[in-house]
Design brief:
The chain is an alpha+beta fold. It folds into 2 domains: 96 residues, OB fold (Dihydrolipoamide Acetyltransferase, E2P), CATH 2.40.50; 311 residues, BirA Bifunctional Protein, domain 2, CATH 3.30.930. The chain has 12 helices and 19 strands. Strand 8 and strand 9 form a beta hairpin. Helix 4 crosses helix 6 and helix 4 packs across helix 12. The protein starts with 15 loop residues before the first strand and ends with a strand. The structure holds aspartyl-adenosine-5'-monophosphate (AMO). Aspartyl-adenosine-5'-monophosphate binds next to strand 11, strand 15, strand 16 and helix 12.
Amino acid sequence: MKRTMIKSLSEKKGQEVKIKGWVDTVRFQGKMAFFDFRDVSGKVQGIIFGKPEVLESAKELRAEWVVELDGIINERPEKNINKDILNGDVEIEITKIQILSGAEIPFDLNDELNLDISLDNRPYTLKSDKNKAIFKVQAEIVKAFRNTLGNFDFTEFQAPKIVGGDAEGGAEVYNIEYFKNTASLATSPQLYKQIMVGVFEKVYSIGNVFRAEKHSTSRHLNEYSSLDFEMGFIKDHTDIMDMLAEVMRGIKKGVEENTKDELKLLQAEELLIPDKIPTMKLSEAQVLLEEKLGFENAVGEPDLEPEHERALCDYAKKELKSDLIFVTHYPVSKRPFYTYEDEDEKGFTKSFDALFKGVEIVSGGQRRHDYDNLIEGLKMKGLNPDDFKFYLQAFKTGMPPHGGIGLGLERITQKILGLKNVKEASLFPREINRIDTLLSE
Ligand code: AMO
């Protein structure tokens, strides 16, 4: 008999079927046994009744055992029908059980666990309904990022993860032994996405990047997934913000349409992404912080503090009905060498951060596309143009005005779902004291 997927069992009333999957729950009651089984497509209730030899073969079954079952699909008794759930009108009466593999589970998946215990047992705890919902939503965010950019003629490319130096000229890097040389792990696909603008005009890349940051906070990981896009022929950074707004709308639509049940299970709030995203210069945000939001000593600082970002987001949500705001014009001193300086506001850049539900999820902006201007940017940061010769070729061989963004996948997942810690939004988080399990001191 061929396997039937659990989601289509309702259509098989009265028929004999074979299903394969996991035991979700099990309860023995005298000469009867009740189960929930699940496969990739859903869950169904199973029952053993009046068949002593089948009951005997089921005796050992516990949650997470992997089985192949034959059975008959029966309509549930009227009083037990639940129209709101998949297979709520049927159950499988089991006639044969084949155990494919056993399981020894350390604790119940529904137990409230602290994060460290949950991470120590990740291969098992990822199976919880909550974790499955988080990573289903995350997969949907990635899909929506791809689909939206695909619809705007962007080409996906694979960026290298082994690089010759620190791409950003500032962020902390991991050095690795590379035969007789030292290489490093990429902190961003930045230089390669700019090179690829010269090739395809509009590109995006999705991949892991590495940051050797020693601090441990609720928003930092040492390896995270960076969703990047970069596009040519822009007028300035506002074209990039418009494209990012499209991407954010695509993500909202994708997750709301395709992961409705998961959002409900995680009690995620509806996202507010208005047609016009609130946008302010850093200097304006700082005045707002001091004049309306009760902060001191914000004006004149080169950057926002985390508590400033939270306050600005609370304000935007309440007053402007938006979960997203753009803050532009960070000073040249705070941005990487490739960032475009505003001709009309010397010392400030045509760059921006996107703040979302209290935290920065995106950095982006216009880049220096003129060769001489880029060399100036490098020198200003104390970097040696000779170290960037390979990348600089792109600027000698036809580079349009361009810009782009980097969006942290785990941060946006965390914020869409209202999770306390970004680690909850990383399948296998790397942090200063953990690679899968805790590291010794
Ligand atoms: P930046 O360094 O600001 O910019 O990073 C972009 C986005 O990546 C996420 N992010 C992180 N997420 C988790 N843990 C971390 N340690 C971490 N660091 C950064 C954040 C952040 O907004 N090349 C530029 C982007 C560009 O201009 O295109 C860059 O990497 O969500």
